[in-house]
Structures are given as structure tokens and as C-alpha cells.
Description:
Elements: H1 14-21, E1 47-51, H2 56-61, H3 68-79, E2 87-91, E3 98-99, E4 108-109, H4 114-131, E5 135-139, H5 141-148, H6 154-157, E6 162-163, H7 168-172, E7 181-185, H8 188-193, H9 197-215
Parallel strand pairs: 1-2, 1-5, 5-7
Antiparallel strand pairs: 3-4, 6-7
Bound molecules: uracil (URA) and iron/sulfur cluster.
Amino acid sequence: EHDARPYVPHTADLDELGRAAASCRGCPLYAAATQTVFGAGPRRARLVLVGEQPGDREDREGEPFVGPAGALLRRALAEAGLDESSAYFTNAVKHFKFTVPEPGKRRIHKAPSLREMTACRPWLVAELAAVRPLLVVALGATAGRALLGGPFRVGDHRGLLEPLPADDAARRDGASLPEARVLVTVHPSAVLRARDRDGAYRGLVADLRVAARALG
Ligand code: URA
Ligand code: SF4
């Protein structure tokens, strides 16, 4: 019964989609979070980057990738020769999921469940149908699964250029996904947590270089 579809308007207007997403109640995650963090970027973009879900900073500011993971991602994009101002940034899940270990303590990120990702997916499909990118970069397993289907291991996909599968549900709803390719890489938060942070960062940049080459 968790499903964003009743809240998703039939439109390719990103502003209208974003306004509607602000009052989505498609799964229980809206209740504890501050606000919906919808995608951000140009209304048409050749490149879309998909993360997992907003973090603490994104939840408070209402914008994707404005925290530490976003800073690392932007640095990696620049190093790979990709222009961040022409890219659209979004997440597989639009509300921050967290636990508070003790009252008054810092909020700790919690991975969204498959049900929550599936519930939220119609927003991602609507964004892709509106933005119509050539290339979609999936940052981590949740995004990879939302775009390519699961079960999913980043290591089985990373660095490849795979076709974005047609979405039957979207077609029923009258939206059509673009003929885009999907490139899977690690999530920037995983780079921040990695024991070999430099190595993980270099791996992210190497994958993003594949994206840069694909976009010419
Ligand atoms: N991590 C994500 O996946 N998305 C954000 O917007 C920020 C951090
Ligand atoms: Fe709706 Fe997605 Fe938020 Fe769940 S996480 S309430 S489906 S926008």
C-alpha cells in the first residue's frame, strides 16, 4: 500500500512535480522528516545523478547534495570533467530516513527499505520522463536498484553503460522514459566512510570519467 503514485501529477513540468512532491504521503517517511527534498537542476539536462536519499543537511535545507557527500561529489564531477551546473541532481527516495539513538542526540542516517524505495520510485520516473537525460548516474545500490531493478550489487555493474529499462508502470501512466544509459558507481557517502578513502575517491572519479566520455 506504500505508493507515491496517487500524489504524482501527470505532467512533465518539473516545478509542478516538485510542488506536488512537497505533500506526498506515499510512505511513512514524510512523518519524521522536515520536508521533501525533490531533485534540482536544469529542466532539461543531459546528465542526471541519482543518490539514495537526502541526508541531515539536505533535510533541513530542502536541496539535494548540499552536505558533505554533495561536496565530495561535486569535487569528483569537476575532476572528471563534468559540469555540475548542467546536471540534474536527485535521489531515489525523497525523504530523509533516520534514527535518534537517544533524545537530543544527532540524527543518524538509516538506509531506506526496498518498500520505501519502490513507493518513492514514481517520483524518480516522473523526473526522468521530464528531464530526458542521455545518461543517468546511479550513486550506490539503492539508486542502482531503483533504475535497473534488483537484487543489486554495485560491483556487478560499476563502470558499465547499461540501457535504462523501459518502465511499464510509467507507460501505463502516460509518461515515457527517455532512451538513456545508466552508469553505476559508488555513493559519495561510502567514499567518506571508506577505510581507503583516497582509493575509493579515485574509483568514483574513474567511473565519472566514463560518464564524461559517454556524453562527449
Ligand atoms: N546523499 C544522498 O544520497 N543524497 C543527498 O542528497 C545527500 C547525501
Ligand atoms: Fe512520498 Fe517518497 Fe517521501 Fe515516501 S519518501 S512520503 S514516497 S516522497
